[in-house]
Amino acid sequence: MADGDQAPRGDAHDERKIPIPGLTDADGRLEHAKDPRSTASSAPRKGAGVTSDKPIPLSHRLRHTVMVVMAILLTGASSGVIGGLLGRINIAIEVLAFGRHVSASTSGIGEVTFWRRLCAPVIGAAMAGLAWGFLRRREVVTVRTTLDAKQPRRLDPLVQLIDAFAQLIIVGSGSSLGREAAPRQLAAVSAQWVAEVCEADFPLRRTLIASATGAGLAAVYNVPFAGALYALELTLRPNPRTRQGWQQIAICTTVSLLATAMAWLTNHNAPTYTPDPVSTAGWGTWGRATLLGMAVLLVGPLADMVFSHAKRVNPKAHHLYWTVPLGGAIVAGIALLVPQVPGNGQIMMGTLLGTRLTWQLAATFLVAKLLATSVSLTSGAAGGLLTPSLAIGGSTGALLGVLTGATSGETVALVIAGAAGVLAMTQRAPLFAIAFALELTRPKSIVIPLVAVTVGIAWAGWALITSQDHRHGAVGRAPRR
């Protein structure tokens, strides 16, 4: 994916030489060398040996400005439409597989007929395995490679479409992976098309595609600021000391907000989760948040290590037709014992936020989700890890809350904080993790500092432990398939 690219950083002390994506070159002049209609050229003065640029016509400047604005608006609108449609398609796949929209139920697939619980994950995984076996026999350009500043390559729309729908099918039929990768990929394809139509140069093209990956996520989960932070913290990583950095921040935020607004046509601005009321009990709550930060420092890196090892197994393409269905069958077996395991983690998070659990059940959730997700990855399946990480972190928060005698309202706050903490560890993106967890649940304002404390303690501990190897402690260094 596009998450691991390092954005070029400019000189913080020379604002005159910071290029405006799609508008100016490194010297601050309007880019026109690639436009045959440009009349600007350098010519020697009479009686002098120096050269100077002719003034750029106002109409040419206006045309470039209009094209950049159109590119930003089209990218946001198309990303929102794609995210909204894929959300509806995912629900349709769930209904087809299990006979009901199981992600909206805290019982998971517990009320689904036995034959559907066994057959749906295997059939869906078999279909996805055949698709991936076909795709991976050839070189596939990913979003990450298309954003490579040294050797940028073009995304193949058909390949991305097949891959995205394979992910939707396998997640909708019960495998334990996230469904956020599919809208990111297709939104990136739409941004690539917009960049080509608007004749964008590489800096603007890269910014548009990166912002579209975050906008696709924002549209699916109704998280506009988390979507912008995803693009900024995990993909572009702009330098805020430069003009170009602030331009990238503005573009990503605008695209994400517009995509989210477009998706309201289908999700009606409803939050993904509706947690029980949150309450606090003074210093006891803050003490539990501190303990949770320490617990997250153990669980988060453990989940990261397990996921990374599972992805390195990487079965050969001609084996995927049986390895992926085998993984689906194993997940189906786990789901017979823990019906909340299937899917991207939405069922489990909904249960954690709306039900008072015993410590045994919370611990079972944590282990089962970690195991099911690693099995899905080991089989060769592709998908996101954002929502599985949330479910694992939420289970950690619920477990600590029950063990320390927290009230029901306090436990809900700890679930949200734990979800953000583990996500920050697995994605190396603390700001995105905080925004994502809060926008998904929309809790009371008192939860915001609790989440910040938990994530801050975990992140500070991680930075201290990995200070000898800054590569592992860097923001936005999450391992990717």
From TrEMBL:
Subcellular localization(s) per the UniProt record: Membrane
Chain segments annotated as transmembrane: 66-86, 114-135, 246-266, 286-307, 319-338, 358-378, 385-406, 412-438, 445-465
Gene3D superfamilies found in the cross-reference section: Clc chloride channel (1.10.3080.10)
Region annotation (Disordered) ranges: 1-56
Principal place of residence: membrane
Keywords assigned: Chloride, Chloride channel, Ion channel, Ion transport, Membrane, Transmembrane, Transmembrane helix, Transport
Compositionally biased spans, kind Basic and acidic residues: 1-18, 26-37
GO cellular component: chloride channel complex
Bilayer topology annotation: Multi-pass membrane protein
Listed InterPro entries: Cl-channel_core, ClC, ClC-type_chloride_channel
GO MF term set: chloride channel activity
PANTHER family membership: CHLORIDE CHANNEL PROTEIN CLC-E
Protein name per its UniProtKB record: H(+)/Cl(-) exchange transporter ClcA
